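Before a colleague's protein record goes any further, I have to sign it off. What it holds is a sequence and that sequence's fold in token form. Would you go through it and say whether the fold makes sense for this chain? The record follows directly below this note.
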Amino acid sequence: MYFAFKHAHMMFAAFSGVFFLIRGVWMLQDSPRLSQRWVKIAPHINDTLLLTCAVVLMVVTQQYPFVVGWLTAKVIALLAYIGLGTLALKPGR
């Protein structure tokens, strides 16, 4: 079970980064693809699955944020990624 969730987590993380890059390119190109419904929904589904796998891995390994240092750093990096990603993908004024 551990390895299945670990590999799923890594796959969802890779997809999140790649799709973030693709959306950034589309934004720079002013592509109409950004207004498609699936482009708006897919990141939320992926991030939900990514976080679900992370929570399962956390419980299975019994390593928790604010107890284990590297996991605390990962949670802080996740919050920074969300915040900076929100700013980066907003259309300019």
User: Anything to note?
Assistant: The mean pLDDT is 92. Helices lie at 2-28, 37-61, 69-88. The longest helix spans residues 2-28.
